[in-house]
Amino acid sequence: MTRYFAFLRAINVGGHTVKMDVLRQLFESMGFANVETFIASGNVIFETKSKNTETLEKQIETSLRESLGYEVATFLRSDSELSAVADYQPFAPAKIESAAALNVAFLKNPLAEESIQKLTTLRTDIDDFHAHGREVYWLCRKKQSESTFSNAVFEKTLKLSSTLRGVNTIQKMAEKYLR
User: Which CATH number covers residue 24?
Assistant: First the structure.
């Protein structure tokens, strides 16, 4: 059995409320084992015999759309991938320490060069970005409420789906499940 971490978009934001026990039941009904949720923001840990993440993502998205009545983009990461995200240093330590927040946007695929160029146009005095693999790291130097950046701006600019999580959440997940 392989363990995966599912990062779901549109769970308990924007008027969509899903109780975590319901989310666990939905994943169990898909045939997944050892299903757990981590905080109430659409982080689901599960095990399966399947190793085809693209097929798994589509299966989860289809099932959640049918059960919840709206699209739920799903981004899967394996143990080693989550560990790499938790340990990655996208910016100098001094920049991270002085920032108000460091977030990671999960993507289906790495950004193409054209998208990386578009991403650089979003940089401001408050916001900086770093693309690495299937993640984009967002460093917010002030309160996020002072930033003009959001997941919606990100998706509109790059014309792709993503979901954001705080790096602290990712590190806590790695600590609980991988270390």
Answer: 3.30.70.1280
Range of the domain at 51: 2-81
- Give pLDDT tens digits for 55-101: 999 999 999 999 999 999 999 999 999 999 999 999 999 999 999 99
Could you read off the pLDDT of 29-54 as tens digits, one per residue? Answer: 999 999 999 998 899 999 999 999 99
Contact present, 46 and 32 (Cβ < 8 Å): yes
Spatial separation of the C-alpha atoms in residues 101 and 138, rounded to whole Å: 8
| Number of domains into which the chain is organized | 2
162 and 113 in a common domain: yes
Instruction: Report CA Rg, the chain.
Output: 16
- Look up residue 61 and give its two tokens: 């998205």
Co-location of 118 and 161 in the same domain: yes
Inter-CA distances, 47 with 8, 37, 95, 96, Å: 16, 12, 36, 33
